[in-house]
Design goal:
The chain is built from 5 helices and no strands. By secondary structure, the chain is an all-alpha fold. It has one domain. α3 crosses α4. It starts with a helix and ends with a helix.
């Protein structure tokens, strides 16, 4: 991975982490707790969360940021990031709807939409950072 890609990954990581922590820890915290009830762990396993937050920006870089900049620019990268998020979060939520007893349907729709939004914003930020760094 080149330095410019590392910078793009880092910006994507920070934006994703900060926005998602605001969403999960403040804005939608009560909604998730109410909808999931006993399914939600009282003590999240932070190691697994760390693996997700470190790896997911790599997916955004490979499937959204670089292809988006190669094609049409930051907006295209953000759109591809949103689609990546839609499909990734839909995979998670639809699988849970299929196999987890009492998985909340409404929460799945909200979570899928959130995945698209946060992924699009993070990919757009990563693409802007990559474009800026590459132009220096």
């Amino acid at each position: 991975m080149s330095t410019k890609h590392l910078v793009a990954w880092a910006v994507t990581f920070v934006v994703l982490l900060v926005i998602d922590m605001i969403w999960l820890g403040v804005v939608a915290k009560g909604m998730y707790q109410e909808a999931m009830g006993d399914l939600m762990s009282p003590n999240p396993r932070l190691g697994f969360a760390a693996v997700f937050y470190l790896a997911y920006p790599v997916g955004l870089l490979v499937f959204a940021i670089v292809p988006g900049l190669d094609q049409q620019g930051v907006l295209r990268a953000a759109l591809l990031g949103g689609l990546f998020g839609l499909f990734c979060y839909a995979t998670y939520d639809l699988t849970n709807l299929a196999v987890v007893r009492n998985w909340p349907l409404a929460l799945s729709f909200i979570d899928i939409a959130w995945g698209a939004v946060v992924s699009g914003v993070a990919a757009g930020a990563g693409a802007a950072a990559l474009r800026w760094f590459a132009s220096r």
